[in-house]
Amino acid sequence: MKEIYIVEFPSNLGLKEPQPGKEPGVKKLPDWFRKHNLHKVINPKEIIRLDAPKYKSDRDPETKILNTNALIDYAREQAFLINNLLSQNKFPFILGGDCSILLGVAMALKQKGNYGLFYLDGHTDFMDVSLSETGGVGGMAASIVTGNGHDKLTNILNLSPYIKEENLWCVGNREYDDEYENEIIKSSATYINLDSLRKRGIKNTVELFLSEIENKNLDGFWLHIDVDVLNDAVMPCVDSRTPDGLTYNEFNELTSYLFQSKKLTGLEITILDPDLDTTGKYTNDFTAQLTHTFNVFKNELL
User: Fold this and answer.
1) Exposure letters 87-108 (e unless 16+ CB within 10 A, then b)
2) What pTM does this model have?
3) What keywords tag this UniProt record (predicted)?
4) Which of 46, 225, 237, 260 has its CA 20 to 30 A from that of 10?
């Protein structure tokens, strides 16, 4: 049976400043989750922390992306850590941070084999830097890990692509802008926006994804959970708010199917900003919902 390791990646390197001179608050998320008992309820074998390099607000002149060199250094360290855990048949339960933490994870997955990625997010994060107003990797993470973009970030350690584009499932986007959606539509990834997910049905969607993992004989899949996939009414403490989103009933149903698959290799949680949840209400609710679903099914998963 696999042992669960909570891995803390307290990084805000992939986001712009919410206001001049103020860093994004997501780097406080692992400590915030600990305060709201997520660690205690998950009850991991061990907790590992890897602090991120110092945040800077200027764009790299070569890539036009924020914190490029820091992201590269951090991704190398992350990949080494995650690779070690996977080699020991551990289950990494990662607490971010923003979505840029995926880079190091995806590199480790590439080093271990051929993996799928279930990208559950209120945005596609499949954006070219030319469309980005912020230069933040958080809005490009799914694109970068599938080999799209500047070599400095897409080909660290000569591993590009970390995840094959056709093995990416991008699910839950509700930013229905043609220019934004076209990037993922014209790719070879599977794209299921929020409207399509509801029309297809959650169970049917996840079953199709899991059957594809089996049919392609992939070594497993990674689950990315950006909390902004949730309905804005229950999760407003994110950097890019958008109307609508999954209810907790929908979210719990979807994750419950994924948590029952032994092909699930690990997961990460991103974007909840403690600075935007001063009372802890939304963090408490999320922690209760996610940990209950995870603990119900973890014996099947592990």
Assistant:
1) eeebbbbbbbbbbbbbbbbbbb
2) 0.98
3) Hydrolase, Manganese, Metal-binding
4) 260
